[in-house]
Amino acid sequence: xDNKSFFRENIAVGFMLFALFLGAGNIxxxxxxxxxxxxxxxxSMIGFIITGVGLPLLxxxxxxxxxxxxxxxxxxxxxxxxIIFTSIVYLSVGPFFxxxxxxxxxxxxxxxxxxxxxxxxxxxxxxxxxxxxxGLTFYLxxxxxxxxxRVGKILTPALLIIxxxxxxxxxxxxxxxxxxxxGTYIDNxxxxxxxxxxxxxxxxxxxxxxxxxxxxxxxxxxxxxAAQIKITVFAGIIAAAGLVFVYVSLGYIxxxxxxAIGFHDNGGTIISLAAxxxxxxxxxxxxxxxxILACLTTSVGLLSANAxxxxxxxxxxxxxxxxxxxxxxxxxxxxFGLADxxxxxxxxxxxxYPIAIVLMVFALFGNLFNHAPxxxxxxxxxxxxxxxxxxxxEAGFEIEAYDNFLSIFPFYEQGIAWVxxxxxxxxxxxxxxxxKHK
Length: 438
What we know:
- By secondary structure, the chain is mainly α.
- The protein has two domains: 3-340, Up-down Bundle (Amino acid/polyamine transporter I); 365-438, no CATH class.
- It has helices at residues 3-21, 24-37, 41-64, 70-74, 79-96, 98-111, 117-120, 123-141, 147-172, 189-196, 202-219, 225-255, 258-261, 267-279, 281-313, 319-334, 338-364, 373-394, 400-406, 419-437.
- The longest helix is centred in the last third of the chain and has 33 residues, at 281-313.
- The mean pLDDT is 84.
- The chain crosses the membrane at residues 12-29, 41-65, 77-99, 123-142, 154-175, 195-219, 231-253, 285-309, 321-338, 344-368, 375-392, 415-435.
């Protein structure tokens, strides 16, 4: 393969990774952030991009350095922790929450706006939509070696063209002036936006998608670990650049839309009304295409990653059987509706997200402490006692005394009180490592 062909293939891998990351949530949250941030849009977008782009890119690199396998990465703490935590992450961004959400969002934003009022309240349109959606997801994920061709070379360019149409039109004919900051974005724009980046779930997804990339590279004959890491990092940079473009474009649409469409607390409503304002009825059609394509590519990547992982853990069940199981399960869950899915998933995400971030960051610098399990272990224990309570609190159960204790830590008001305990735990674990070796 000549350099030109090699570069073109790597670009395709980067496009695939970008498309796998770009789900409906990534399209819905930036316009809402834009409306709420107002004149503080710049600092807000920086906070959002750190957690919505920067951390996922670090996640891709961390997993690539460990052979594209989250279980190997988590197994540095303890083999049992590796299996249990990896399974929780895969199921969370797989058939339990994220995959069903792709089907539910495709219907809510891509299909429902075109239905009559009577049909919107019926279960039949959602049922039919999710059957077609997950049937196509199953077909695209059936042969994982062809995901790069199907997603990176076909779906992603179409997705980018549609988003570019919205972005360019909003710049040429802006809907209005930049509005004023609202709520917590007035005094805490950066911190609030930083937390909002969690909702993309892309840090968890970055730990999952590594196995899809490595599998695709192996199918292309790239088996050397150094080459896999190099290509994966290159693909991650392309995906990160694409996500930044999308977030800035959609954030700009949101921040200039308030005078034309008013304030709304739902990002889907904002982008839907903005698309209609920019392109008329054709805007709704364009938006529907964006949402369905974004959901489809993410669903394909998550489904393939889950089937690959669990086939490795329980090899007696084939990859294709896992696809069937997860597709049927996701289809059933998605028919409960989007609101219930988000309500159930949020406490779980709040609990496991900090653990995933700390594991990922410490792994990137693992050579400094020889990947000592004590450093990982103590840091994650200290993180976990804060993060698990945050998840319980998000579910509506609060322990006042413990909450008062956590309030003494920095960043408590920003919702990331786990940062300092994680660092303290890492230092204690490092001291234990030094003492043991002396």
